[in-house]
Automatic annotation (TrEMBL), chains A, B:
<feature type="domain" description="Saccharopine dehydrogenase NADP binding">
    <location>
        <begin position="5"/>
        <end position="146"/>
    </location>
</feature>
<dbReference type="InterPro" id="IPR032095">
    <property type="entry name" value="Sacchrp_dh-like_C"/>
</dbReference>
<dbReference type="Pfam" id="PF16653">
    <property type="entry name" value="Sacchrp_dh_C"/>
</dbReference>
<protein>
    <submittedName>
        <fullName>Saccharopine dehydrogenase family protein</fullName>
    </submittedName>
</protein>
<feature type="domain" description="Saccharopine dehydrogenase-like C-terminal">
    <location>
        <begin position="150"/>
        <end position="396"/>
    </location>
</feature>
<dbReference type="InterPro" id="IPR005097">
    <property type="entry name" value="Sacchrp_dh_NADP-bd"/>
</dbReference>
<dbReference type="InterPro" id="IPR036291">
    <property type="entry name" value="NAD(P)-bd_dom_sf"/>
</dbReference>
<dbReference type="Pfam" id="PF03435">
    <property type="entry name" value="Sacchrp_dh_NADP"/>
</dbReference>
C-alpha cells in the first residue's frame, strides 16, 4: 500500500486529477498540488473545499514548483512524504519529474510523452527517445512508472489489451478514434495549450501498418466514422503517443489513430500554418521586434480553461478493433462517451480535461491498492485492464462495447 | 509652365511614378525621389538608369526624408527647386507634405486620403476630416492641390465626369469595380503594405445611396460582374475614398465601390480578423512580451514588392454608369485593363502599383503643361477629363468604353 499523492500541474487536467484524488483521499491520503503558478494551485484547492470533495481529514496543500528543477521536486516529494506522483504538467517536465521519482522511490504516473521544447513532432520511436531509456533503472530500483495513463494514451491502450485477452485470437487492426462533438461557442479555440495542441499537427503523421512505420501529411487521410451517441463524424489520421507502445505490444496489428476535426478547425489551422503563424521560429517585425508567431497566436486565442463553463455536448473516444476469433473475422468498438457540462458541474473542467484526468487518478488508486504497483516502467496495455476499467467506471467514465452483431452494452459496471 | 518634380515615397507606386516622370523629363525637368528608406530610393534611381528612362539631361537624384517633418520637406522642395510634389508615401504623411507645398507654393498631388495611424477606417466625410479643411488656404495662396490622382480614386473619377459631360443628362448610379484577376503564385499576399491593406477592410463599409450614407459590413454585399477580358468576377461592396468626393459632386447618384476578392482571400482575411490577428491593439504573450498582432502578420506575409517579378494576369478597373440620355435609360462601362507582366517588364512593378502610379505622373504632366494647374484644391472629377485620359493612354493606360448596345471600343487614342 502506497499513499500521499503529489499532483504536478494545475491546468484543466490537473484540476480533474486533484478533485478525483480528493474524492478518494480515504484511500490516497494527503493530496499535494504543485505548479509554477501559485494562483492556479490555490484555485484548485479552493474548488475542492468548495465542493467538499475531501473524503478524509488528510492534508490538502499546494506548492509553487518549477518541475524542471529535479532537486526542488525531490525536496517536495520528501517534504510531502508523497509515495505517488501524478505528472500532468507540461510535456517538457516528464524526464525531470521521473528523475525525482527514481531518486525518492515514489511511483510515477504521466499522461503524455516527453517533449523537447526545441523540437516539434519528433520521429518514432517516441517513448524510445526518452522514457524507455529509463526502464532498466526503474526495474533495478523497483520504481513503478506508469506511462501514458490518460484517456488516449491510456484507456484506449487498456481497451486494446482487453480485446486481446477476451475477444480475439488474432488482432489485425486497432483504430483509435477520438471525437470531440462538443461546442465551446467561440469562433475558434484549442482544448489544450495552443502551443502543445498545434505542435501535434504541424509535423509528419506516423502510423504503424504492415509491420512498419508509415508517414502521411496532416489532414491527408480522412475517414467518416459512424459512432454511438455522437453520430457520423469525420476524423483524420494523426500521430499519437499510443501508436508507438501499441506497435511494440501488437507488432502484427495495424495501429492507427484518428482525430476528429470539423471543417472550420481545419480551415483555421491551415490558414495559420500556411501563413507561418504556427512557427516557433522568431520573426522580426518592421519595427525590429523579435517575436515567435505561435506565441502571438496563443495570446489572441481564448485561454482553454476559460472554455469550460460554456462547453456543451459530448466526446466519444474508443477503439475499433478487428481480427479473428475461432477462425471467424469480427470487429468490435470499445468506447466511452463523456459530457462536457456534467464534467464542469462535477469538477469545474470541460470533458477533454475530464477524460484525460480521471484515468490518471484511477491509476494512482490502483498503485495505492497494489494492483498496478508493478515496480517497473509499464505502458497501460502491459497491465491488467479490468481493475482500471472498473475504477474508471466508479470515478465517472463508463465503458461500452459494441460487438460484431451491433449489440451495444455497458461492460464496466 | 511648372517643372522639377519631387516624388515622396519609394514603394511600388513611387517606383512607377519615378519611372514615368523620368520618361517625361523633357517636359518635367529634374526628378527627385525622397523616402525614409535611402535603399529603396537608390534602387529606383538605379532602375531608371538601367532602363535608360531619363529623356533629358535633367537631374535624377534621391534624398532621405521623413515626410512627417514639414520643415525638412520644405527645405528639400526648395533645395530641389521642385514646383510639383507627387506624394505617394504612406497615407499618414498627406497633411505634412501638403503643408510644405502651401509654404513653398509647389503644386501637390496625392493618390489616397490622409489617415491617422491611431484610427482605423474613419467615418465620412473622409476628405472633410483633413484635406478639404485646407481648400480655402490653397485657393487663397493659389496653390494647386490635386487629390486622389491614382486609378481609384483618380481615373475612375475622371470616367464619371466624362460620362456626365458626354453620355448622360442624368446619372443614377456610379458603380466603380476594381478587379485584380492576376496571380502572384503565393499562398497569400497583399498587394500593398498589409497594415494599410487590411485596415481598409476591418471597419464599416460606407456607400452613398438615395442621397445618404449607407453602412454595411465588409463582405456583406457581394455581386458578380461580367467584365471584359477578365470575365465573371465576384466583387464586394467596400468603402473607398472616391465615394466621398463623388457623393459631393454627384449628390443625386448612388455611388458604390466594389472590390474583387476571391474566396481564398476572404477565408484567410476572416480567419485572421476573427482571431484578432488584424488588431492594432497590443496583446501580451505568456512570456510578457507586448506585441501588435497586425505587425506580426505583416512580418510573416511576403513583402508586396517581392511579388512583382512573378505576377501574371490582368487587372480590370472601371465605372458602370447608368442614367438617362434624351429620356432613355442606358448603362455604360468605362474601363482600363492592365497587365502585371507588362508593367513589370516596363518599370519593375506589378499591375496594381502601375495603375496607381501612372495617373499621378500624368497629373504632374498636366500641371506642368498648364491644363490642370488650377491654383486651388480639386478632386479629379472637378477637372477636365480628356487631357487626363489622353495622357494616360500615351503613358500606358488605355481607356475603353462598352456602350448600352454592348459595343466595346478604345476611346483614349
Amino acid at each position: 500500500m502506497r499513499k500521499n499523492v503529489l499532483v504536478v500541474g494545475a491546468g484543466g487536467v490537473g484540476r480533474v486529477v486533484a478533485h478525483k484524488c480528493a474524492l478518494n483521499s480515504d484511500i490516497l491520503g494527503d493530496i499535494h498540488i504543485a505548479s509554477r503558478s501559485a494562483e492556479k494551485c490555490r484555485a484548485i484547492v479552493e474548488s475542492i473545499h468548495e465542493k467538499k470533495h475531501m473524503r478524509s481529514n488528510a492534508k490538502l496543500e499546494w506548492h509553487q514548483l518549477d518541475a524542471m528543477d529535479v532537486q526542488a521536486t525531490v525536496d517536495l516529494i520528501r517534504k510531502a512524504n508523497a509515495q505517488i506522483v501524478i505528472n500532468v504538467g507540461s510535456a517538457f517536465v516528464n524526464m525531470s519529474v521521473l528523475s525525482a521519482c527514481l531518486e525518492t522511490g515514489a511511483a510515477y504516473i504521466d499522461t503524455a510523452i516527453h517533449e523537447d521544447p526545441r523540437k516539434i513532432c519528433e520521429t518514432p520511436p517516441w517513448y524510445g527517445n526518452y522514457e524507455w531509456k529509463r526502464a532498466e533503472e526503474c526495474a533495478k530500483r523497483g520504481v513503478t512508472a506508469i506511462l501514458g495513463a490518460g484517456f488516449d494514451p491510456g484507456v484506449v491502450n487498456a481497451y486494446a489489451r482487453l480485446a486481446k485477452d477476451e475477444h480475439f485470437d488474432q488482432i489485425k487492426d486497432i483504430d483509435i478514434v477520438d471525437i470531440n462533438a462538443g461546442s465551446h461557442g467561440k469562433y475558434f479555440a484549442t482544448n489544450f495549450d495552443p502551443e502543445i495542441n498545434f505542435r501535434e499537427f504541424t509535423g509528419v503523421v506516423y502510423s504503424w501498418q504492415n509491420g512498419a512505420w508509415q508517414t502521411n501529411k496532416m489532414f491527408e487521410i480522412g475517414k467518416e466514422f459512424d459512432l454511438p451517441v455522437v453520430g457520423k463524424r469525420k476524423a483524420y489520421l494523426t500521430g499519437h503517443d499510443e501508436i508507438h507502445s501499441l506497435s511494440r505490444n501488437f507488432p502484427n496489428a495495424n495501429v492507427r489513430f484518428w482525430m476528429g476535426f470539423g471543417d472550420h478547425y481545419i480551415t483555421v489551422f491551415n490558414v495559420l500554418k500556411n501563413l507561418g503563424l504556427l512557427s516557433e521560429q522568431p520573426v522580426k517585425t518592421a519595427e525590429g521586434l523579435e517575436v515567435v508567431p505561435l506565441k502571438v497566436v496563443k495570446a489572441v486565442l481564448p485561454d482553454p480553461a476559460s472554455l469550460a463553463p460554456d462547453y456543451t455536448g459530448k466526446t466519444c473516444i474508443g477503439d475499433f478493433i478487428s481480427g479473428t476469433k475461432d477462425g471467424v473475422d469480427k470487429e468490435i468498438f470499445v468506447y466511452n462517451v463523456a459530457d462536457h457540462k456534467e464534467a464542469f458541474n462535477e469538477v469545474g473542467a470541460q470533458g477533454i480535461s475530464y477524460t484525460a484526468g480521471v484515468p490518471a487518478a484511477v491509476a494512482a488508486l490502483l498503485i495505492a491498492q497494489g494492483d498496478w504497483d508493478v515496480r517497473k516502467m509499464a505502458n497501460v496495455e502491459e497491465l491488467s485492464p479490468w481493475p482500471f476499467i472498473k475504477g474508471l467506471h466508479q470515478n465517472g467514465l463508463k465503458t461500452f462495447l459494441k460487438d460484431e452483431r451491433g449489440e451495444d452494452r455497458l461492460i464496466s459496471e
